[in-house]
Amino acid sequence: MGSLESPKRIALITGAAQGIGRSIAFRLAEDGLNVAVNDLPSKLAELEAVVEEIKSSTGGQAIAVTGDVSREGDVKAMVTSVVGKLGGLDVMVANAGITEFRSLVDLSVEEWDRNMAINGRGVMLCYKHAAKQMIEQGRGGRIIGACSQAGKQGIPSLPAYAASKFAVRGLTQCAALELAPHKITVNAYAPGAIISTNIGEQLDQERARLNMPMNIPMAQPEVIASLVSYIAKLESYFITGQTISANGGTHCD
Fold first, then answer.
1. What's the rounded Cα separation, in Å, for the pair 117 and 57?
2. Domain ranges of the chain
3. Which of 48, 126, 152, 252 places its Cα 20 to 30 Å from the Cα of 56?
């Protein structure tokens, strides 16, 4: 008789060379998923180190796939590579993003476009090509995107970042409604200040200049990884279209 065990589910996490993405990759591997970790080609060495650590600590499969999420060709190739090497795609975590503190009056068009390209278009492309693959597979799936507290509440000197993250919320709601018939849920996580991330480090530097409180609650990336762990599970099928806050109570929906 053949094995009755279900095949391992497969996750792809973008922006996974460091910070929240790296933490999510480790958590999903610990949950028993095979994982593909993505970041820019310039971060291949960091990605390969993540892969080796995941393999040695969990015994699961892990691969690195480089690519720029703002480029559709890269995202398509990334998904194709993961499917070819790991056998499919069940969980897409569109985590890659950037942040730049810049007041509106000092904001350049180039900075605005860069935020929209990576934080907005990058998430859209990951949603799109993950959805196409999951629909083709016919076994449902979980699509999860990176929003932010700044995607629910404006923050001084983050106009481009906040606008791009508000866009992720709208995109997530639309995608959830469209993909529900295929048993694909679409959700996003909205972190507050997270230690060991680019925005966390920049926030520390900007607090005094922006006259922000010095006692803003901060948490480790593992807090977000645990949230993603749950909404990636099969049992979370009744949660979709949501952007879930994790911010220590600094903003309440």
1. 35
2. 10-244
3. 126
Q: Which residues are catalytic?
A: 161, 165
Beta-sheet strands, E only, within 96-230: 141-146, 184-191, 193-194, 218-219
Q: Is the pLDDT of residue 2 over 50?
A: no
**Burial grade of 126 (CB within 10 A; 0-12, 13-18, 19 or more):** buried
Confidence at 7, pLDDT banded by 50, 70, 90: confident
pLDDT tens digits for 93-121? 999 999 989 999 999 999 999 999 999 99
CATH homologous superfamily for the domain 10-244: NAD(P)-binding Rossmann-like Domain (3.40.50.720)
Q: Which helix (H) or strand (E) holds 146?
A: strand 141-146
- The percentage of residues in the chain with a pLDDT greater than 70, rounded to a whole number, is 90
Q: Where are the beta strands (DSSP E) in the chain?
A: 10-13, 34-39, 62-66, 91-94, 141-146, 184-191, 193-194, 218-219, 243-246
Residue 138 dihedral angles phi and psi, to the nearest 5°: 75, 25
Of 62, 159, 145, residue with least CA distance to 101: 159
pLDDT recorded at residue 6: 59
Q: What is the dihedral of CA 120, 123, 128, 133, to 10 degrees?
A: 170
pLDDT, tens digit, 9 for 90 and up, residues 146-180:
999 999 999 999 999 999 999 999 999 999 999 99
Q: Which helix (H) or strand (E) holds 142?
A: strand 141-146
pLDDT digits (tens, 9 = 90+) for 210-229: 555 556 788 999 999 999 99
CB neighbours (10 Å) of residue 73? 10
Q: Are 204 and 193 in contact (CB under 8 A)?
A: no
The strand pairing partners of 189, in sequence order, are 146, 244
